[in-house]
Design goal:
24% of the residues lie in helices and 23% in strands. The strands form six sheets. Strands 11, 12, 13, 14, 15, 16, 17 and 18 form an eight-stranded antiparallel β-sheet that branches. Strands 19-22-23-24-30-26-27 form a seven-stranded antiparallel β-sheet, covered by helices on one side. Strands 3, 4, 5, 7 and 8 form a five-stranded antiparallel β-sheet that branches.
Length: 732
């Protein structure tokens, strides 16, 4: 990778000192040294001449984000580089295949905001090609239909396997006279094999006209341009045909047969490697949900940024965070996540808690990449996004005590009018009931907030604030800001103490929705557990409470519910909730006919829901991080842990991408044994946790008896080196 781009030849890099990363060759290799060559010409590089930079042999295990240290690079110029490494046996590898990268404008002039990525042109084979700066370039892909039939109206009804953001490409052969086709595009169909003209909500139906011209065979349907309604809405450049999400096409006016090779979805996609990940298990619902979410993560970044779906085409912080951490689980891609985070720092949305996701996004980027440049360049902005300016003496923050001034809003880059707490979305409408109110706020009957009572000191907001402080302490440590590290550590300790003193009901051992409020919502209890605020002594009561609530939150915020459930040891219940077939479930999305995750659970919960909302794709994160237990311990997966929480799942196998290579996990959860097979990528080590199911047991590693350390309900094998291993814990 060059500056975290795996295909940098189809981009330009505006950094005069790009950073290089690579995967170590050899399944069991640990790097001890490397040599990088950078050349101004491919021929020179093929002759092992690094006329721009020859690093020489550098004794180092680092293979992530190595800064360029050669001659000054020129703007708007192509270069090539390659690398070789030495392993723990001092054996040198072959050089890697050359990778091309293009430099762009180093001065960063005429930017709407720092870090803005623009469309530019490069020359390729004597032709100009549009590419994006510092992120991969989106492009069109042709997808053939699954079937074509003629319906009762005599129209051709075309079904594609899945919905994409696309237009259609037709290869009809030349026509003799002018003609017109009426084309219907939609995400939803009817039982009579038509495109549903009235699908409801923000589910897509669109009609277009295609005029056929004598002598012309091939057509790309020109759809009306998307009209942005908000400042942050994203639009396609004029050189790219407009797209809309659809799975079904109905064509009026086509005479004769229409073959599958004559019509294609002309799908607009950000680069995605389908082979970077997989998941299979003994639970068919879980498999279908994985496929639904993976396709969502492939199809929705079609504008080169994370957006909230069809209706607004704009990014939101919480939505982007959920998409970010899920995207890491299915593809080895890092540029789009970083770009979206950067955009949202300078172009934020309105909810309090959404601003509080920015630090979470920045830390997730660092843990995935090990590249601290973003933390360093945006450190001052991250400090402001903790909302420390809204704190009172006890450390707790509020948006309702007069501290949200114009100066404060300017400091966090917010230019809108309605900065307020959200908890979850949709919020619903205020209720007249007062049964759960104490006079400090209002309850809701509809929406996804579980009748959360909003008050001056909001439990959810302060849980996020605490998490921000904890992460800023870590970030300050990474950047060697010792004084700041102590400051954030002290602030976090104060907030945790005040949080548990003033928001925890000592009798019920549950958290209330806010200071002076009696009501306890799902959200007020899942966030303190997810963010390590809740005392473990209260776990039994909180676990029972959360299990009594079901899925009383949105698809997006379910990420935090599952984090809490797995931390509480409720893995059987979590799996049951994840694979449920009720109306508040991912199986319901599939049953409705969606091929991407939906904005809300059902039309009855949100009247204008979209079928293209990636904040609901979090099950891939839950499956990867919790069920299969793959998680970075150190940045860039230099060290990871594998700690499955399978519940009653009989077996599963997964391939999980990282910047260092793939992690593979396969387990069999038998009555008298637990078998765990793992592949640890080169230049990484892992702590392996095997679920302990028996009082007396034998532990085998590659069929040889070994000892592990008993820790909680697991047996731990520490510091396992790269390679392929088989572990079995069986009853003695």
């Amino acid at each position: 990778m060059t500056d975290l781009l795996s295909i940098p030849e189809y981009a330009v890099i505006t950094n005069s000192q790009p950073h290089f990363s690579w995967i170590i060759p050899g399944e069991k290799s640990i790097q001890t040294a490397y040599q990088i060559l950078v050349a101004s010409d491919l021929t020179k590089l093929e002759e092992n001449i690094g006329d721009m930079w020859d690093s020489g042999k550098i004794d180092s295990e680092n293979s992530i984000s190595i800064p360029y240290k050669g001659k000054s690079l020129k703007e708007n110029t192509p270069y090539w580089w390659k690398v070789r490494t030495w392993d723990q046996n001092k054996t040198a590898s072959e050089y890697s295949f050359p990778q091309k990268f293009n430099t762009g404008d180093f001065e960063h002039v005429n930017r709407k905001w720092p870090g803005e990525s623009r469309w530019v042109t490069i020359r390729e084979n004597s032709k100009e090609k549009y590419v994006l700066e510092n992120r991969h370039t989106i492009g069109y892909h042709e997808i053939e239909p699954a079937s074509i039939v003629v319906n009762s109206k005599g129209n051709h009804f075309v079904t594609f396997e899945k919905a994409y953001f696309a237009t259609i490409k037709l290869e009809l052969g030349p026509v003799e006279k002018e003609d017109t086709l009426i084309i219907h595009l939609g995400e939803k169909s009817t039982p009579s094999q038509e495109v549903d003209r009235n699908p409801g909500g923000s589910i897509i139906y669109q009609q277009a006209v295609l005029k056929l011209t004598p002598g012309v065979s091939n057509y790309i349907l020109q759809l009306p341009r998307f009209v942005p309604r908000y400042p942050n809405s994203q639009v396609l450049p004029e050189h790219m045909p407009e797209v809309t999400p659809f799975r079904f096409v109905e064509i009026e006016g086509r005479e004769g047969e229409l073959k599958v090779n004559q019509i294609k979805q002309y799908a607009l996609l950000y680069p995605f490697n389908d082979n970077a990940s997989y998941f299979h298990s003994s639970n068919d619902n879980l498999n279908q949900i994985w496929d639904l979410c993976k396709h969502t993560l492939k199809a929705t970044p079609f504008l080169g940024m994370y957006i909230d779906g069809t209706r607004e085409r704009m990014p939101y912080e919480a939505d982007a965070y959920m998409q970010q951490v899920s995207h890491y689980c299915v593809d080895r891609e890092f540029a789009i996540q970083r770009y979206t985070t950067d955009f949202l720092i300078y172009n934020p949305s309105w909810p309090t808690e959404w601003h509080l996701h920015i630090v979470l996004m920045a830390w997730a980027d660092y843990m995935a990449t090990g590249d601290s440049r973003f933390l360093e360049s945006r450190y001052d902005e991250l400090k402001k996004k903790t909302l420390l300016a809204l704190a009172r003496e006890d450390g707790l923050i509020s948006t309702r005590t007069g501290l949200v001034t114009p100066e404060f809003l300017k400091s966090i880059r917010y230019e809108g009018r309605d900065f307020r707490d959200i908890v979850d979305w949709p919020q619903g409408t205020p209720a007249n009931e007062t049964a759960h109110m104490s006079g400090h706020g209002s309850a809701t009957l509809e929406g996804e907030t579980d009748r959360f009572v909003f008050s001056d000191i909001n439990t959810v907001v302060n849980a996020y604030h605490y998490r921000n402080l904890v992460l800023m302490e870590k970030i300050a440590d990474v950047l060697n800001k010792t004084e700041d590290k102590r400051f954030f550590e002290k602030k976090a300790s104060l907030v945790k103490s005040s949080f548990n003193e003033k928001l925890l009901d000592k009798e019920t051992k549950l958290y209330t929705d806010g200071e002076g409020v009696q009501h306890s919502a799902l959200h007020a209890n899942m966030f303190p557990v997810a963010f390590d605020l809740a005392p473990e002594s209260n776990y039994p009561e909180i676990r029972s409470f959360l299990q009594s609530k079901g899925m009383a939150c949105s698809p997006g915020m379910s990420l935090y519910l599952f984090e809490a459930l797995y931390k509480l040891g409720a893995e059987d219940y979590a799996l049951q909730l994840l694979t449920s077939e009720g109306d508040r479930s991912w199986m319901n999305m599939i049953r409705m006919g969606a091929t991407m995750t939906t904005e809300a659970w059902d039309m009855k919960y949100k009247k204008n829901l979209t079928w293209t909302h990636a904040w609901g794709a979090t099950p891939v994160y839950v499956i990867s991080r919790r069920i299969c237990g793959i998680e970075p311990v150190e940045p860039s997966f230099r060290k990871l842990c594998i700690k499955p929480q399978p519940g009653n799942l009989e077996w599963a196998k997964i391939k999980h991408p990282t910047i260092r290579g793939s992690v593979e996990v396969e387990f069999e959860n038998k009555k008298n044994s637990f078998v765990l097979n793992v592949v640890i990528p080169p230049n990484s080590t892992a702590d392996i946790f095997i679920p302990l199911k028996f009082d007396k047991y034998i532990l085998l590693q590659n069929k040889k008896i070994v000892k592990g350390k008993k820790t909680d309900n697991y047996i731990l094998i520490k510091d396992v080196e790269p390679g392929e291993y088989s572990f079995e814990l069986k009853i003695a």
